[in-house]
């Protein structure tokens, strides 16, 4: 989430369904409503907070690659 001048990056335990998840902002809060892709899976905590900087970088790079791949797929499907 990016809300200038702030940036929030969360490393979740597993995937969520993005188009069924949302973030609402109030004057004081960011409220996340996240739908897990594996609904019956128990997450011990919302985020993985014990990652090294290198692990975070790797997760971030994979997420960026996936996003680019999905964008490219949408372009190809559009014609």
If you had to describe this structure to a student in words, what would you say it looks like?
It contains 1 helix and 4 strands. The N and C termini lie far apart (30 Å). It folds into 2 domains: 1-48, no CATH class; 49-79. With 79 residues, it is α+β, with helices and mostly antiparallel strands. The longest helix has 26 residues, at 53-78. The chain has a two-stranded antiparallel sheet. A two-stranded antiparallel sheet has the order 3-4. It has one helix spanning 53-78; strands at 2-3, 6-7, 22-25, 30-33.
What's the short story on this structure?
This protein is α+β, with helices and mostly antiparallel strands and 79 residues long.
- Number of DSSP strands? 4
Share of helix among residues? 25-40%
How confident overall, as mean pLDDT?
89
Distance between the termini: 30 Å
Give unreliable regions as ranges.
none
Binned strand content: 15-25%
What assembly state would you assign to the polypeptide chains in this entry?
single chain
The SSE string, one letter per element, is EEEEH
The tally of helices reads: 1
**Strands of the biggest beta sheet: in what spatial order?**
1-2
Radius of gyration: 15 Å
Instruction: Specify the structural class.
Output: alpha+beta
Please outline the major beta sheet: 2 strands, antiparallel
The total domain count is 2
Shape, per Cα inertia axes: globular
Walk me through the topology:
Layout: E1 2-3, E2 6-7, E3 22-25, E4 30-33, H1 53-78
Antiparallel strand pairs: 1-2, 3-4
């Amino acid at each position: 989430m990016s809300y200038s001048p702030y940036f929030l990056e969360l490393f979740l335990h597993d995937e969520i369904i993005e188009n069924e998840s949302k973030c609402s902002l109030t004057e004081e809060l960011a409220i996340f409503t996240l739908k897990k892709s594996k609904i019956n899976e128990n997450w011990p905590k919302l985020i993985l907070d014990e990652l090294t900087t290198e692990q975070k970088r790797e997760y971030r790079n994979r997420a960026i690659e996936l996003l680019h791949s999905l964008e490219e797929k949408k372009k190809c499907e559009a014609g």
